[in-house]
Amino acid sequence: VASNGDIAWRSRRLFVSAALAEQPLAFEEIDDGLFTVWFGPIALARFDARRWRWTEVLMWHRDGLRAPSAG
């Protein structure tokens, strides 16, 4: 992740977060064009590469991944 929070991915610029500057991320494809973005053992978010949009923020729990509840 660059100092401004961007990464170059699939020949395009994608803003992730300036808080992750100089840190490595991993993109794991979980479905056609849908990726879980990992920072070490922590799942940060899902990214839809077909629409070039973040789809949901994830939280890591002992019992697995789930989207945070509203409210």
Structure explained in plain terms:
This protein has 71 residues and is mainly beta. It is built from no helices and 8 strands. The protein has a 4-stranded antiparallel beta sheet with strand order 3-4-5-6, with no helix packed on it. It is globular and about 30 Å long.
The number of helical segments is 0
Sheet with most strands: strand arrangement: 3-4-5-6
Biggest sheet details: 4 strands, antiparallel
Give the overall silhouette: globular
Order of helices and strands: EEEEEEEE
Radius of gyration: 12 Å
Low-confidence stretches: none
Helix content: under 10%
Number of strands: 8
What's the mean pLDDT score?
86
Strand fraction band? over 45%
Structural class of the helix and strand makeup?
mainly beta
- Oligomer designation: single chain
What keywords describe this structure?
71 residues, globular, 4-stranded antiparallel sheet, two-stranded antiparallel sheet, mainly beta
Offer a concise description of the structure.
This protein has 71 residues and is mostly beta strands. It has no helices and eight strands.
Give a topology summary.
Layout: E1 6-9, E2 12-15, E3 26-31, E4 34-39, E5 42-48, E6 53-57, E7 59-61, E8 64-66
Antiparallel strand pairs: 1-2, 3-4, 4-5, 5-6, 7-8
